[in-house]
């Protein structure tokens, strides 16, 4: 697969909400081919930033570019907090939704293969309402994988899950999205430390980005990992400290 | 409080109402041309069976044709309004004005224009039906959950494909509730048309019976009419719940 996972550059990006700056002149880089984690409290503008990258929110000031300079919108796949599965379609139909929407041929064997990878082989023809929350989110992950885009944007995709399902989802995600440019938004320092190869936090009013030193070990890092636990504590402290300003 | 299933409550209600009716008839001594007894209604029903069923069949045909054409018009208008802002702006007032005219006042005009035959009744039913269908379906089309629209956008869907594979299926539960209302009021349209000018149908029969003080026959016709309405509504409700099983899921959003 000649998919090169490009880095994403944010230049002087500004977002105003009700005439107040949420963030202004934001500059950062999301590295290509790794898990970029963007950590921050609710309402700090993380989701808006992700939507701007996804082309879902208009950019009033600043620029978002990627390398090579092809259009971003055809390279991204977006995964939200809700699974956004269509209730009228079976699991496999949901996975292949993108093909249908782009009037392309549906690749059934590819969809089946992906569903096998996420452990949903036995519910291929069931409807989303018949699945548990964790299974639904795995189906959403399968849909994201089916799109086969080099850039994956994830907006708190696991926050609605219980901790066991969440931990499993983190494992699946780290494995299956390996090599892609992932930007994952979360408010959970633990998740950031398990999955982050490049961790940035977005804090303050107006919000600013801070880079966090990288954590040892390849992802998904084990919860027992001493580095994970240390980094998590540091991260939490940093969040509290920065938010207090 | 114990809850009883519908199939249990309906017979109980019917028997109760019949007893009450018979009781009023017996004790208040109302003359039969004002309020016939249930028994005499039954006799009238039996004696005029062929006439009643034939009339009901005609009304039923008008209702179904009206329902189909009204739904067609309703779907078309809703789609056009949701797709083209210009149409939405100019059509909405026209639709509202059309609904502000009492249907009964419109009926003589329709008979004048479309004749005493079936077409004036179908048009009448159509005018009554399209509005709930249009408004419910349009409402559904404009309220597609934002997340689905965004997902469609990131998948580079064209507006048409987005409509076909996301917005229309997402609007079907709303459409179904409009359709259920339409099914319940459709026979009214047909019967009103028949009252004003017709040579057949339940409305025509009722008007004739009314003029001749055949109140028992009128009651029999009314009974058939309400039976028809309930069956139609029931059939539509069962069909929509079977065909659109995700109505429950969509409501969560």
From TrEMBL, chain A:
Q: Gene3D superfamilies annotated for this entry?
A: P-loop containing nucleotide triphosphate hydrolases
Q: Which ranges carry the ABC transporter domain? A: 8-231
Assigned keywords, A-Z:
ATP-binding, Nucleotide-binding, Transport
Q: Which InterPro entries match?
A: AAA+_ATPase (IPR003593), ABC_transporter-like_ATP-bd (IPR003439), ABC_transporter-like_CS (IPR017871), ABC_transporter_ATP-bind (IPR050166), P-loop_NTPase (IPR027417)
Gene Ontology MF term list? ATP binding; ATP hydrolysis activity
Family classification: Belongs to the ABC transporter superfamily.
Q: What is this protein called?
A: ATPase component (TauB)
From TrEMBL, chain B:
What is the top-level taxon of the source organism?
Answer: Bacteria
GO cellular-component term (any): plasma membrane
Which Gene Ontology biological process is one annotated for this entry?
Answer: transmembrane transport
**Which Pfam families does this UniProt record tie to the protein?**
BPD_transp_1
| Main localization category | membrane
- Which CDD domains does the entry link to? TM_PBP2 (cd06261)
Per the record, membrane topology reads: Multi-pass membrane protein
Q: Which keywords accompany this UniProt record?
A: Cell membrane, Membrane, Transmembrane, Transmembrane helix, Transport
InterPro entries in alphabetical order: MetI-like, MetI-like_sf
Where does the UniProt annotation locate this protein?
Cell membrane
Q: Where are the transmembrane segments?
A: 7-28, 64-87, 188-205, 217-236
ABC transmembrane type-1 domain: which residues?
A: 52-236
- Which family would the database say this protein is a member of? Belongs to the binding-protein-dependent transport system permease family.
Identification of the protein by name = Permease component (TauC)
- Top-level taxonomy: Bacteria, Pseudomonadati, Pseudomonadota, Alphaproteobacteria, Acetobacterales
